[in-house]
Amino acid sequence: MIVFLAKDKLPALLSELNEMLEVVAPVRIGNDTAFATWVGQPIDFEKNPQISPTEFLLPQREVLFKYIQHSGRYVFEEVEPKSKLILGMRPCDLNAVKVLDKIFGTEPFDKLYFRRRRSAILAVLNCSKPEETCFCSHLGAGPECIDGFDLLFTELDSGYLIESGSSVGMLILKEHSDLFQEVKSVYLAEKNERISKAKETLNSRPNLSKDKIMGALETADWESMGNNCLSCGGCTFVCPICHCFNILDLGVPDGERLRCRDSCILSGFSRMAGGVNPRKSAGERIRNWYFDKFQFIPENTGLLGCVGCGRCISVCLASMDRWSLKVPR
Amino acid sequence: MDKVLTTCVYCGCGCGLFLHVEDGRIVGVSPSPMHPMSKGRLCIKGWLAGDFVSHPDRLKFPMVRREDRFARVSWDEAISIIKRKFREISDKSGPDSLGVLTSAKGTNEENYLLAKLARAGLKTNNVDHVARLCHAPTVVGLGYAFGSGAMTNPISSLAHADVILIVGSNTAEQHPLVASYILEAKANGAKLIVADPRKVQLADLADLHLKPKPGSDVAWINAFLNVIIQDGLINERFIIERTEGFEAVKQSVSVYTPELAESISGVNAQDLRKAAIIFGSAERCAIVYAMGITQHIAGTDNVQALANLSLATGNIGLDGTGLYPLRGHQNVQGSCDMGALPEFYPGYQKVSDAREKFQQAWGTDLPDRPGLTALEMMAAAENGNLKGLLVVGENPVISFPDTYRIKNALNLLDFLMVMDIFPTETTELADVVLPCASFAEKNGTFTSTERRVQRVRSAVAPPGEAKEEWRVINELICQLGIASCYSGPEEIMAEIASVTPIYGGIDYGRLDVNGIHWPCPDRNHDGTPILHNERFPINRARFRPVEYIDPYELINDDYPLILTTGRSLYHFHTGTMTRRTSLLDREVPVPFVEINSDDALAMGIRNGQRIIVETRRGQLFLDARITADISEGTIFVPFHFTEAPANVLTNWALDSQSKISELKVSAARIRRPEDDRFSG
Ligand code: SF4
Ligand code: SF4
């Protein structure tokens, strides 16, 4: 099913959806654009936020359960996630979700991830405005979304084309049909034109295909990259595919068991109890980060561990050119 | 999920970040891509800055000491006890038997109110804060030299330097965002010269690494300037047009040959010459410094030596040049600006000059007796002259030099009141403990090391009955009979702006998301990113000759090693917050001592071995970290750890000008526990 929504009708649609579920969308906060709960703020589709909406599926910090002492025994309380509609996720991030689904879906199956995943409706936005650092098309992860979405938005001059990609998506379109208009063929032409333009922009950038990157990995100077690295962990915290976590219990006798994001860039991540560290230097840890994305994750899931969203480029505190694998010199 | 834009609570860089809030709790942090300085980047502490906020250890209720334990009391009861105690002490021993240590972690508004509480409420100028132990020499030294004791340029200016001289600053670990701009400069072709007894990360990337012995800075910096003068690399026009006193400096440095400097500081004379020529020949040079320069009995002279160097080469007032004292806490700049210093009212207006003005503004008479600095207050507590102390968000037991002496001094007080967010080694000694709001739980402003006044925004409510400090201080001021009824931080800032010329144009509406660099005299002024570009506040900048003096403690046969202290990237100061952040604590979970590998070999010490480090004041058991990255004869201990507080070892010998103590040099020795068995 495919419909057209005039621009000025978007808030009305979101308000209606908001009655049933929490709507998450890219909104303006100060000069920035970030995904947050929509409570009527203006939507901003111009920029791809630095933090991927995958944080709603795999939060930075999540309470797994509460433990409470009760007459000498412990009782456990779990918290149910709220149902959400995530609007404006771009194709790169949807592809990242596909990788996460595989990773958390293999045994042992991660119940908690899928509890959030199942309660989220993904309203993806076809990408007509790639950021300067994007290279999704080189890895086949954008700018156009083909499948895996519940709803797919394409921004046009006067409104949005909305396609459904699942039964939930279709239901939503049917339920709010009074807001939509019929799709004219010029709209479809405009969609194609916008996407080809984005493709063109992306493809005109230096080639960052898998083979090219694999080649660069073979010759990279890990030691100098490590010497420049300021160990901020940013590249792992912004990556929509990075998913490592740590578990800790906070509070005695009552408290919470938390799952918190972790980072392989930190030396404590790989250091063992006796102090031995198989990835001792920052360079070795950076090397592992790349190989995880281009070798280990593909071996384990059949999918690339990078979708070319480019976030790790702009976040790097040492301004390394992450994908030509060069240190600033 | 809501995202609240605010400012990082850790270091002076002042990065912009979002706190992610869900159901009234902080569930994450992310950088602000449009922040004018940090531009969507953070260091690891910033990325994890939300973690400690909901830690179960947070103080939640006012508490009063009853014998040897604390009892929970109501706010009203706590406040009335405090008021009674302050009155009693003041009536019996005079107002100067009271003192206030404010918090560099607090907001500008809170620091302003605390200074007002001390002067208008308690009628004493005994108000100080931790700047005394970090950049007091900068406030005094650059105040004299330039007429303004703050960083001259914005951080981003570093990216445009041709040469950057970094002295006594482990920038990559302590000010990562500053380091990122230094790396950018290097990528643009700038040369880096690092002077540090340790091979810190930037030393490794530098073109030259000079390794002065701790406490020898004046000697090698004077020689550095001497080479520049001898080689005719000074900027004569700048010297003539904009400065005074150059001849005396020229005279005094002329005896400091690189060879003499080598014999004092150990810096290779060849390297020193090379470095001086690189510096002197370049167009735009920046000098970055931190505690390695200031925490000495010659701290103020060290700062002046660097100022002399900047002035002689004309490296002031332009993009890519300047002097960059890197301030440690996110708001230690602001705390100084707000007059949390005994000799200054807000905006560095001298107590001796501006008393009349503030008596009018605050509607009460103010004391003219000179106030005590932080360590002078401790000494006064020791000899019974100081009887009551209010400590806010500071942990002197761990952060001040000579822990045992500090503890003893605090124990001698009749009344110690501490406001904090977590129980600390200092709250343990208190008579009354009040629970406060963390940075995520209050509104206000912080001023970063680049003089950028920025907003702090409340994202969640404080835990339990904890309150924002400004509310508590406001209440205390009222109780002491001074009219003080602010509706909130914005109103406090309006008052600050009305009495503080450098903050005259600061207003919440104007700060918005980019902040403003002070001086900003009025509402039509956009702020001043680069200072001194046309004139100095004192008109002509002042050279002053400085001579090398020995550190207070010299090594000898009994104590053959120089102990120096500092921080790690992963912890902040006394660890109250970072040690409650699991990923940070995992990085550096235990205290350690760094020893040079040759020294370790000679002493028969293995890596990881538990050893005893001793100075004249105390001893600690620490794990040895053997490394070639520290100079021979020097050992390094970080001061974050309560289980082995480095300041047990340090001495509090004071710089006579700025009253900072010489935390960076103590004479020490190392023993292996097994040796004790034989020697009995
Ligand atoms: S590795 Fe970098 S470009 Fe690739 S998905 Fe992660 S953040 Fe995006
Ligand atoms: S560099 Fe400083 S201000 Fe920036 S994130 Fe790190 S600790 Fe916070």
Description:
The complex is a heterodimer of chains A (329) and B (680). Chain A is α/β, with parallel strands linked by helices. Chain A folds into two domains: 2-203, no CATH class; 210-325, no CATH class. Chain A is built from eleven helices and eleven strands. In chain A, a hairpin with a 4-residue loop joins strand 10 (245-250) and strand 11 (255-261). Chain A is globular. By secondary structure, chain B is an alpha/beta fold. Chain B folds into four domains: 2-47, N-terminal domain of TfIIb; 63-132 and 330-480, Rossmann fold; 136-325, Dimethylsulfoxide Reductase, domain 2 (3-Layer(aba) Sandwich); 561-678, Barwin-like endoglucanases, CATH 2.40.40. Chain B is built from 25 helices and 28 strands. The longest helix of chain B is centred in the first third of the chain and has 19 residues, at 75-93. Chains A and B meet through strand 3 and strand 10 of A and strand 1, strand 3, helix 1, helix 6 and helix 7 of B. Bound molecules: iron/sulfur cluster (SF4) (2 copies). One iron/sulfur cluster (SF4) binds next to helix 11 of chain A.
List keywords for this structure.
heterodimer; A: about 325 residues; alpha/beta; 2 domains; four-stranded antiparallel β-sheet; about 35% helix; globular; B: about 675 residues; N-terminal domain of TfIIb; six-stranded mixed beta barrel; 25 helices; about 20% strand; binds iron/sulfur cluster
